[in-house]
Specification:
alpha/beta, 6 strands
Length: 245
């Protein structure tokens, strides 16, 4: 039986975050340049976004480019930025009623890329279906540092008292303040780490790691991850007995 047919449609995760890993290794296995893998990975983004929207996922957050990725060779960065420009298909978003957002240190992005991204954000802002979020020039350490700076500035200006700062205060100052924390985090490509991605937000997320390289991660692999999630008991620090009450 297909994993898609095993899904409990009433228990689809509201927010799924994905670390899309393995593009370069997938290309290397085929004797191709890394850019070939990134192109194939971009095609998978559209496949998974459409599947997530069809299943009723509310938020899909994709780790597209980290702050550490700026240290990659200049030609690879240029190719990634060009691919990003080419792969933003507003028609797909409009057809699937998808709202588009980005999080990250966008000031570092090339002006033409940022303009294209903002254009897509504006044109899809009235869509009421799934929100597709790209984490671009993003890292959790950058995000948390920015949140601390904002909160500290408010404390200095007496806009907030030190004793009033709670975890909710931090939530409100994160780049992800417009959406709930991920229920499920998926990482493809065989690595078992979070790589500076949504560290605060994933405190109680269910984690799913698979060996499949991102270009090969299609609908059935995605549904398999959700099926695995649905077999788990989410306790949030409580006991099983408390959850059942």
């Amino acid at each position: 039986m297909l994993y898609r047919d095993q899904l409990d449609k009433s228990r689809i995760p509201a927010h799924i975050a994905i670390i899309m890993d393995g593009n370069g290794r997938w290309a290397k296995q085929r004797g191709k340049a890394r850019s070939f893998g990134h192109q194939a990975g971009a095609e998978t983004v559209h496949v998974i976004a459409e599947e997530a929207a069809r299943l009723g996922v509310k938020y899909l957050t994709l780790y597209t480019f980290s702050t550490e990725n700026w240290n990659r060779p200049a030609d690879e960065i240029a190719a990634l930025m060009s691919l990003l420009m080419d792969s933003i298909e507003e028609e797909t978003f409009m057809k699937n009623n998808i709202c588009f957002r980005i999080i990250g240190d966008t000031a570092k992005l090339p002006a033409d890329v940022l303009e294209r991204l903002n254009q897509c954000i504006e044109r899809t802002s009235s869509n009421t279906g799934m929100c597709l979020v790209l984490a671009l020039s993003y890292s959790s350490k950058w995000e948390l540092t920015e949140a601390v700076r904002q909160i500290a500035a408010k404390a200095v200006n007496h806009e907030i008292e030190i004793g009033e700062i709670t975890d909710k205060t931090i939530d409100q100052h994160l780049a992800t303040n417009f959406m709930p924390d991920p229920d499920l985090l998926i990482r493809t490509g065989g690595e078992i780490r979070l790589s500076n991605y949504l560290l605060w937000q994933c405190a109680y997320s269910e984690l799913y790691f698979c060996d499949t390289y991102w270009p090969d991660f299609k609908e059935e692999e995605f549904c398999k991850a959700i099926c695995d999630y649905q077999r788990r008991e989410r306790r949030f620090g409580k006991t099983s007995e408390q959850i059942l009450k």
